[in-house]
């Protein structure tokens, strides 16, 4: 191959690698005392959170604080309050729910960070998604403890959007597992909002579809 063609090929190859990096996602782990956030710095969005929820954590009395930047990550990688101003009808939707972290002031403080939230349709967040969070507490109360994972499926068409297409939640307790998915979409009728209970196989297929980097489901357990 002539030197000119080799140089051209090298330039094109480097540009291709840069494009892959831009279109993909960069996952980092943000370890808190009581839960863990897996975060996509490229999209400025959480991928999922995980924590062990125990019966003694239910019904904490510490007051909710205001959202703040996560000190473990540069602010430029976080979707802070001003990023929500153009998102009419969306809440800062917690992945690890605030009500599950009222058992201590530190837990409350570490829960109220932008890295633990994504734009969530408020009518969805405050109805069926809240009911699902209450279901988790009931499961925990009956089984002493439950491992809870909550995540999002990103918009794969508009890759610059921070608004997820879906929110999901997985519960592991004793010898059981539950998988739930809800569409993060605005409806005129509140009755159209729903949460689907799906099989592990269905959930795995969806996870791989949205996060093509993985050939199988990460070891959530």
Number of domains: 1
**Count of alpha/pi helices:** 5
The proportion of strand residues reads 25-35%
Mean pLDDT: 89
Shape: globular
Q: Low-confidence spans: pLDDT under 50, at least 5 residues? A: 11-24
Topology order in helix (H) and strand (E) letters? HEEEEHEHHEEEEH
Share of helix among residues?
25-40%
* Number of separate strands: 9
CATH class type: Alpha Beta
Q: What is the level-2 CATH architecture name?
A: 3-Layer(aba) Sandwich
CATH topology: Extracellular Endonuclease, Chain A
Explain what the structure shows.
By secondary structure, this protein is an alpha+beta fold. The chain has a single domain (26-210), classed as 3-Layer(aba) Sandwich (Extracellular Endonuclease, Chain A), CATH 3.40.570. It contains five helices and nine strands; from the N terminus they run αββββαβααββββα. The strands form two sheets. A seven-stranded antiparallel beta sheet has the order 1-2-3-6-7-8-9, with helices on both faces. β2 (36-40) and β3 (45-54) form a beta hairpin. Residues 11-24 have low confidence and may be disordered.
What descriptors fit this protein?
221 residues; alpha+beta; 7-stranded antiparallel sheet; 5 helices; 27% helix; globular
In short:
The chain has about 220 residues and is α+β, with helices and mostly antiparallel strands. It is built from five helices and nine strands; from the N terminus they run αββββαβααββββα.
Task: Please write out the topology.
Layout: H1 3-23, E1 27-31, E2 36-40, E3 45-54, E4 90-94, H2 105-111, E5 117-121, H3 122-125, H4 128-143, E6 145-153, E7 166-173, E8 176-183, E9 195-198, H5 200-210
Antiparallel strand pairs: 1-2, 2-3, 3-6, 4-5, 6-7, 7-8, 8-9
């Amino acid at each position: 191959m002539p030197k000119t063609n080799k140089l051209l090929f090298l330039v094109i190859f480097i540009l291709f690698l840069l494009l892959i990096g831009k279109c993909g996602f960069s996952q980092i782990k943000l370890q808190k005392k009581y839960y863990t956030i897996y975060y996509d710095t490229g999209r400025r969005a959480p991928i999922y959170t995980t924590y062990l929820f125990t019966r003694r954590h239910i019904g904490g009395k510490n007051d909710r604080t205001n959202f703040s930047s996560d000190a473990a990550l540069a602010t430029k990688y976080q979707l802070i309050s001003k990023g929500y101003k153009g998102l009419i009808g969306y809440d800062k939707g917690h992945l690890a729910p605030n009500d599950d972290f009222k058992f201590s002031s530190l837990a409350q403080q570490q829960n109220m960070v932008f890295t633990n939230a994504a734009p969530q349709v408020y009518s969805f967040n405050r109805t069926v998604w809240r009911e699902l969070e209450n279901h988790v507490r009931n499961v925990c109360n009956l089984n002493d403890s439950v491992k809870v994972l909550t995540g999002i499926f990103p918009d794969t068409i508009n890759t610059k959007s921070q608004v997820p297409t879906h929110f999901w939640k997985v519960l592991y307790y004793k010898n059981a597992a539950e998988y739930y998915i809800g569409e993060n979409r605005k409806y005129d009728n509140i009755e159209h909002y729903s949460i689907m209970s799906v099989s592990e196989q269905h959930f795995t297929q969806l996870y791989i579809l949205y996060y093509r980097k993985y050939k199988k489901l990460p070891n959530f357990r």
